[in-house]
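Summary for the steering committee. The consortium agreed at its last meeting that each partner would contribute one worked example illustrating the joint modelling workflow. Our contribution is presented below. We chose a case with several input lines so that the handling of multiple components could be demonstrated. No manual editing was applied between input and output; the record is shown as generated.
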Amino acid sequence: METLKKLVPSDLNASKWVRMILGILVLALLVWRLVDVILIQRLYGPDTWARFAITGLIIGGMYALIAIGYTLVYGILLMINFAHGEVMMLGSFAGYFVFELLAFIPSPGPENPEQVLLNAFPVLSILVAFLVGMLVSALAGYFLEKIAYRPLRKAPRLVPLISAIGASIFLQNAAMLLFGPQRRTYLNPTLLDRGLGLEIPIAGNNVLVPYTGIFSFVLSILLMLGLYLLVQKTKLGRSMRAVAEDKGAAALMGINVDAVISRTFIISGILAGAAGVMWGVHNGLLNHYVGYIPGMKAFTAAVMGGIGNIPGAMLGGMTLGILESLGPAMLGIDFQLKDVIAFTILILVLIFRPSGLLGERLSEEKV
Amino acid sequence: MKKNVTALQKGLNTGITLGVVMVFLSLTAFTVVLANIIGDSYRPTPVTYGFVIALFGFFGGLMASSKRGLPNDDWKNVLTSSAAAGLIGGVILAVPLAVLGSIHLNGTDLRNYLVMVSPDVMETYLFGIGLLPAILITVIIFAAGAILGGAFNKGAARAEWRARWMANSQEKIRSAWQAPRVQQVVAGRYSKLFFMVGALLLLFLMPFVWGSYWNYVMGTVGLYILLGLGMNIIVGLSGQLVLGYVAFFAIGAYAMGLLSSPEPLGIQLGFWPALLASILVAALTGILLGLPILNLRGDYLAIVTLGFGEIIRILIKSDSLTWFTGGPKGLRAIAQPAIFGLKFNSDVNFMHLILVGVLVGVFIAYRLQYSRTGRAWLSVQGDQTVSRATGVNTYQYKILALALGAAFAGIGGAIFASRNQFTGPEDHVLMVSINVLCLVIVGGMGSLPGVILGSFVLKGIPELLRDLTDYRLLVFGVLLVVMMIVRPEGLWPTRRPKLEKQHLSKYDPDNDEASSEEVSA
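What follows is the complete predicted structure of the assembly.
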């Protein structure tokens, strides 16, 4: 054992050295690939870059919405809500079923007997789908907290994480057993057909920006603004910030801590539900596994922006979306490796700047 | 728990919860699968299905009539509560079934939206008779079951004669155990040795007897014990939460595969050198990964390692690295071990190899855990600052734990790859890490018998429930949550925290018995 231990570096300075060497290596690799791809090979024209960036922004908006859920919960309970991706998946399924139901019912109007409700009232259908999706996710978040996390409020920190993993496995498999493992295609109203979009001329070529993407992006920005106002201006927001700062003191000031935590889960559920329906509307594919990867990415985004920090989660989501979309092209690697880029960014951020881009907002006793 | 609820309210609460659970179980056709198991057939009959409904009702009755929350447990309260639970539960169950039933009777196949609800299953829910009678029957059976459950709880389970009988039989067992003859044998000089030799002999002989299927299942359990031993060092002893454990498993398996398979590299080293290389490569990866990240906070560490595991999986799967890793198709024709010309190619041989591996692994883990190193890990887990102040080099011990844990995973991965003669990206999904973490936690963190027990519970028992394959992970998820709420210290927790507390309380006058219960593992 003593000889074994001699092989292992003995102090934290080693960690600093390793980090420095790692940093220089990563930087060198990055510069080499960027120069190679952008200046020497010139694989892609500006229109392609623009397309990648726009795709990244759209996906980034959804990541940001989910990431806010992680950040809110982490800020208050100091736990990774591992099942948050599954909450989003449930919202996605709810929106899917609303669309399917509305496409099933014929429209009552006399002018066109073939018309279904979905296309007769597209705006209303979309509104209903989003509302139902948000409601389902909010309920899922509420019950998740009540059943799986609340009894563990005082347990050591590993315990709620395991419980969250269990809840995540349960929800995923429940969705699989209920709705089947096959991939489903999201049925959009014709107004939001996935093939349609704005054509923007860039460098001689037209870049198609799908309407679903514009819609998702605008909606996610609106929701984020709404959340920001809620947290900054309302009484509930103030009590949420107070609970995040210090649960005990908040309780002494007459704040019902349990109720605030419940509402936090409801709010993050609402955002995740909206993101879920957007995900379906924009990407068009849905199965029980749909929440896992976005959930992981969104957590990455939350950490990247600085956990506990709401503007940080928004910035992190957008940045991650763009980097992930531009990354494979910029580095000139296989597009299959998109997820590797996201996770590598996560690891690099945590190694070099563990408090994230905008800094953590956690009260001192917790860290 | 709310304090003052009437019997009726308690019954309603229980009934609503149970009803919602029943609706979920019906939509996933779990009730029908249970009916099949009970009836031992592939097609449910109304009788077995009715029995399952009654059984759930009975369970509801038991819950509704439990003492906790009831104002007092006289017959009137018990029956009110259980009847209320049964009726409301039955109604909640029957209403969605009625809706689905009417859709089904219209001729629509529900499987487009709810995969498990086939027309057969739907017919069972309707008992093969019309909609309205079926609903009535469902409610009646459920409520009857619940009332029976309540009556059973009051009349038999809780009655005085039963308590007396239990105490009596316990006393008999104790006196039989303490009889001088028995004690003489148990505490005898050679009895321990005798038991151990007997157990070893049994372990050696079992693989010949129970056939290749059980060798496969028990081999998997054995591999998971190896993985669990490593994870136990990382999580249970040094307290570092690592979620990407599968990365080390994958590295072990791929090192074995790449060094011994004819494709794609063509270095056909043979099993034993490749095994050694797997262990070394896995341990080295552990050290290299640990160097930059081990000073991160607990859950950040979890996420970084999780990301690392995913990166490894995506890399071995990707098309651009096929020349090195074999890509999505994986590696084939991995070497099998041989000793003195004796080739290991049957399931019995591999079972023996795994047994030896597990025994050696348990021995090493045991010696490590109760050595100075093990105590240093425990101190790191307890409080890093204090641990550093008492002269433990926390950083070094954490890296050592990660390296040793990774080495165990490397052995597991190498034997796994060799046994299957194949390894591919799908063997190394996140679920492996989660399974291993869960078996350590379910068994009890830092407890070696816990690791073994946990492997049997998580990997062995699911194999017994072959009929429930589809529902396995579902049940697993629920079990994890319930386990964390009911028994977070695990099935077979270590005694050390308790012992330390007792030791301390001898010297601490303020430390009374009540507070010693608060320490968690």
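The beta strands of chain B are 331-332, 338-339, 342-343, 422-423. The mean pLDDT of chain B is 82.
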